[in-house]
Amino acid sequence: MINSESFNLPKVKDFMTKRVISFTPDMDLGEVLKTFNKYRISSGPVLADDNSNEVIGFISEDDLMREMAESSFFHSPSMPIRVEDAMNRDIIRLGTEMDIFEVEKLFRENNLRHAPVIDENLNQIGIVSRRDILRALEGLIDEMEKYTEAARGHKEQSMMKEAQWRLRL
Q1: CATH number, domain at 37?
Q2: Is this model's pTM higher than 0.85 or not?
């Protein structure tokens, strides 16, 4: 087990993406699809309106596929479908002080790919993806390896000093 006193565990605020593409409930799903493709993203938070940072939902590729396929099959593809018709309202939000292991567990247990990061007023301040978590874990592993090497070096030096001292006796 990692001793958090020996390592600085990454917190959400350290590895979240701060520039977030977000959507509003009144947007057309066609716009969302174009945005997903243009920016190569697979989901995004839905904000209450253009003047708000309050996260009220989340829209994903899965949501788009489901709604657009159903619309094409049962209706006319020209019928506008809004984000509010497709978004997931049951979202998991992250706080900035959550550590990497809390977030990783939350993502695994809930099969998350992305989650919005909010402040104490429920305003969006970032987003975390699986890729962000993997990058943070890579950094932590690198830090642990450096710590282990340094500790090994100190132990070897200590053993050498003791051996030298014993040889003098």
Answers
A1: 3.10.580.10
A2: no
